[in-house]
DNA sequence: ATCATCAGCCCTTTTACTTCA
DNA sequence: CCTGAAGTAAAAGGGCTGATG
């Protein structure tokens, strides 16, 4: 995304770039929602000696094709600290099995991995002492888990028909809590979870895939909102700067008119910040300066204090 | 070094199901 | 109560990548 902040003579209107720079699947894989994002501001000429790998070449082409030859300046807009995850987890301590390969690797291992031997009693296929089913039987007479079970069984029997399986609330909640701890699963975790929930490993895998997709979608929405606000802020700032620039230009025009008159030296008292003027020689060739406190611009050749707006 | 295979992931689409006007 | 549109979630399909033989 590109945000334009124009400060020059011919301000360009803001222009959002619809298409993203090409991202390789590998980069997609590496990217994570908590890593923040950037906004590009185009305000300058290309810097010589910049690295030009393939992607940058592609990006450069994109800018050029849009008629904008300015390379972007990146602004990090998101806080670098990821939003802390709420870990009020009723299922904390799910005994995550770790694969043979990930010993010492914490990416998928639960911090509480060996804490408990908590077991969910779903009994989808067994029925028997299913707490959730008993509760649901009492509440609405519908045994959601058994529905799910029977559908799954149908699918197993028919094979060809794709029956929609609705996961029970308990299954969803447990998967959700698992996802909070690890948004990806290693094969052992997947198998353990599937066994625990009486689901097929493929179902667990698919559920995690879809869950990641939902997370990404939500994050994209959040990012979008944030960028919108940033854009509004920058637009307002741009408007303010444009206005200030116009004022200064107008001031300079007036100033050039007064340049025709005999020069006057303006000085600002550093302590009281008042501007005073002293008349220069009649030759008029000597330029004088005063400092606009507000803008830091140099103003030359001001006439008498009576007509000078900064004078007291 | 190159190729084939496999597993895992992401993205997109399909489809079953739910909700609501 | 019925119905159809809209929304949601589970699942499938295809493409890509890295690991392995």
TrEMBL record:
GO molecular function, one term: DNA-binding transcription factor activity, RNA polymerase II-specific
Location of the protein in the cell: Nucleus
Coiled-coil positions: 224-254
InterPro entries: HD, HD-ZIP_Homeobox_LZ_Class_II, Homeobox_CS, Homeodomain-like_sf, Leu_zip_homeo
Tagged with keyword Coiled coil: yes
SMART domains, sorted: HALZ (SM00340), HOX (SM00389)
Annotated protein name in UniProt: Homeobox-leucine zipper protein HOX11-like
Gene assigned in the entry: LOC111456605
């Amino acid at each position: 995304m590109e945000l334009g902040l124009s400060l020059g003579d011919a301000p360009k209107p803001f222009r959002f770039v619809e298409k993203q720079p090409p991202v390789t699947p590998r980069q997609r894989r590496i990217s994570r929602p908590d890593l923040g994002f950037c906004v590009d501001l185009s305000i300058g000429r290309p810097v010589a000696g910049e690295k030009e790998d393939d992607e940058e070449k592609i990006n450069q082409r994109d800018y050029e094709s849009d008629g904008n030859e300015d390379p972007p300046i990146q602004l990090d807009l998101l806080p670098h600290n990821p939003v802390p995850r709420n870990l009020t987890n009723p299922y904390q301590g799910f005994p995550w099995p770790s694969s043979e390969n990930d010993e010492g690797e914490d990416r998928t291992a639960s911090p509480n991995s060996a804490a408990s031997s908590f077991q969910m009693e779903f009994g989808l296929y067994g029925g028997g002492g299913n707490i959730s089913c008993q509760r649901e039987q009492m509440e609405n007479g519908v045994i959601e888990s058994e529905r799910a079970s029977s559908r799954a069984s149908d699918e197993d029997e028919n094979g060809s028909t794709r029956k929609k399986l609705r996961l029970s609330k308990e299954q969803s909640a447990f998967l959700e809590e698992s996802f909070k701890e690890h948004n990806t699963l290693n094969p052992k975790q997947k198998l353990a979870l599937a066994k625990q929930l009486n689901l097929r490993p493929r179902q667990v895998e698919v559920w995690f895939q879809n869950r990641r997709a939902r997370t990404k979608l939500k994050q994209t929405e959040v990012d979008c909102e944030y960028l919108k606000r940033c854009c509004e802020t920058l637009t307002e700032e741009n408007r303010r700067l444009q206005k200030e620039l116009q004022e200064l230009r107008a001031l300079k025009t007036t100033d050039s008119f007064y340049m025709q008159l005999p020069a006057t030296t303006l000085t600002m008292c550093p302590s009281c910040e008042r501007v005073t003027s002293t008349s220069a020689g009649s030759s008029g060739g000597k330029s004088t300066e005063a400092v606009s406190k507000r803008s830091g611009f140099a103003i030359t050749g001001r006439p008498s204090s009576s007509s000078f707006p900064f004078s007291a």
